[in-house]
Amino acid sequence: MPSQIALIGVGLMGENLALNMADKGFTVSVFDVSAQRVEKFIAGRGQGAKIHGCSSMQELVGSLALPRKIMLMVPAGKPVDEIIEALIVLLDAGDIIIDGGNSHFSDTSRRTRRLEAKGLLYVGAGVSGGEEGALLGPSIMPGGSAAAWPSVKPIFQAIAAKVDDGAPCCDWIGAEGSGHFIKMVHNGIEYGDMQLICEVYDVMRTLLGMTANEMHDVFSQWSEGELNSYLIEITRDILAVKDDDGLPLLDKILDKAGQKGTGKWAVVTALDVAAPLTLITEAVFARVLSSMKDERVLASSALKGPEVRFSGDRKAFVDELGKALYAAKIISYAQGYQLMRAAATDFEWKLNYGGIALMWRGGCIIRSVLLVKIKHAFDLNPELVNLLMDPFFTATIAPAQFSLRNVLGEATKNGIPMPAMSSALAYYDGYRSANLPANLLQAQRDYFGAHQYERIDKPRGAYFHANWTGRGGETASTVYSA
Questions:
Q1: In the 8-state DSSP scheme, what is residue 33?
Q2: pLDDT per residue of the chain (482 residues) written in tens, 0 to 9
Q3: Which of 105, 101, 70, 65 is nearest to 86 (CA)?
Q4: Is the Cα torsion angle 19, 21, 27, 33 positive or negative in sign?
Q5: 348 has catalytic annotation
Q6: Phi and psi dihedrals of 237, rounded to 5?
Q7: Given 26, 201, 256, 359, which is the most exposed site by the fewest CB atoms within 10 A?
């Protein structure tokens, strides 16, 4: 019996996806450049499942029902292109190649166009949820050749996570690299959420002197309310784990964070499409700063800050921390959705913003109860320009901003860095300001570079240049936007 889908790359993610597919009734063929890896999988975790090991790409292609569907679970970049080149000569018109790795969306757009020109179909599918999600149900964000969706939809929606109403956390995103783009934004928001939680943890530990057990109790409470999310839940669990000596394991982990690059991609893309992704940008740079461990240790002995001292009501301040975290989280999502909207305009994609929130409700790393509110916001107004302008979020952020201000004020007085939370408040205050000091900035640009400016007493779109020094003349530079 021909297989309904094939997987190339049987690392842990590939193995788990294959097992997930087989568990849902699909017959799967697998191949890897390491024949031993395939043999070990078939003889081990894949034993007895409807999974066929293949020793070559030719055998893999020959084992598939038409149209052939081949999913790549290999490292992004050159390995994907090399496998695509090897497959092209083996496939027929209408066959489908699926990239389930963390490819850059621009590479997926390029590959989609190239393969469609050859009569093949291409899907870039963002997969979130890690190893457990791949096995038990991830969030899947597919985009690319729309003609491929009817063929891959039954498989993807069967293996995807399901939420309480039974809806699968998978639907078609849109054209070209849009699926991988949405996964990139997901990962950027993930960076922001993680950094915000770390900043709150630092305040609890450093300013309030809370023990791991006390913090565990707080995160346990938060996991039952409006802050409920996967990342809050795992933070709760991490705080409860003890090392062999009975002390918190967390206290023994080196404060030097790593990253794989998707957060950085989100920041670079935000600059390209002119979206103010400030919170996520600070989260990325916080990881960079953390990586400078030896330099920071040296600086800590030379650069002095204030003495850490807290004299307020600790319980009341913990409540403030929770409200501040919720406010900053809302702002992070608002920025992420602004990035999506800006990119959709630039790349001429039609994105279903409420549907994207629906896909993130289960299986993925940023799953949280907040996504239900986001889905409702876009159901109410599909053209919503900013989440903060939705009635629910406008009403929610109004009181929460004061907790954000109080927490940042106390942290600043005590020298505790909160870069992501600080950027959240700066963005909020900037976005709600009808007037910003950019008039002076434009005057400066016109002074030294004759870049011109608009006037509030003239029609928009009319540009002027002033002879600021009396020596500059009337010649002006062109008006352009980088």
A1: S
A2: 899 999 999 998 999 999 999 999 999 999 999 999 999 999 999 999 999 999 999 999 999 999 999 999 999 999 999 999 999 999 999 999 999 999 999 999 999 999 999 999 999 999 998 888 899 999 999 999 999 999 999 999 999 999 888 889 999 999 999 999 999 999 999 999 999 999 999 999 999 999 999 999 999 999 999 999 999 999 999 999 999 999 999 999 999 998 878 899 999 999 999 999 999 999 999 999 999 999 999 999 999 999 999 999 999 999 999 999 999 999 999 999 999 999 999 999 999 999 999 999 888 899 999 999 999 999 999 999 999 999 999 999 999 999 999 999 999 999 999 999 999 999 999 999 999 999 999 999 999 999 999 999 999 999 999 999 888 777 776 765 66
A3: 70
A4: negative
A5: no
A6: -70, -40
A7: 256
Tokens representing 53?
A: 């090991």
Residue 296, both tokens: 């920071």
- Tokens describing residue 335: 């920025």
Catalytic residue among 15, 190, 199, 282: 190
Both tokens assigned to 64? 């598939």
Whether the model pTM is above 0.90: yes
The amino acid sitting at 67 is: P
Q: Which amino acid is at 349?
A: W
Q: What is the rounded distance in angstroms from the CA atom of residue 168 to the CA atom of residue 161? A: 6
Q: At what angle do helices 105-117 and 178-202 cross, to 10 degrees?
A: 170
Is residue 216 a contact partner of residue 240, using CB atoms and an 8 Å limit? yes
C-alpha closest to that of 249 among 233, 232, 237: 237
Tokens standing for residue 416: 């505790």
**Half-sphere exposure of 298 toward its Cβ, with a 13 Å CA cutoff?**
4
Out of 183, 264, 373, 375, which one is annotated catalytic? 183
C-alpha span between 462 and 453 (Å, rounded): 8
Contacts for 440 with CB less than 8 Å, ≥ 6 apart: none
Cross-strand pairs, 30? 7, 53
162 is catalytic: no
Record the tokens describing residue 378, joined without a space: 């876009």
CB 328 within 8 A of CB 421: yes
Cα-Cα end-to-end distance for the chain:
56
Cα separation, 14 vs 8, in Å, equals 8
Cis geometry, peptide bond prior to residue 67 (ω within 30 degrees of 0): yes
Residues 6+ apart with CB under 8 A from 389: none
Put residue 360 in one of left, alpha, beta given phi > 0 → left and psi -120 to 50 → alpha.
Answer: alpha
Give CA–CA dist 127/9, Å, rounded: 15
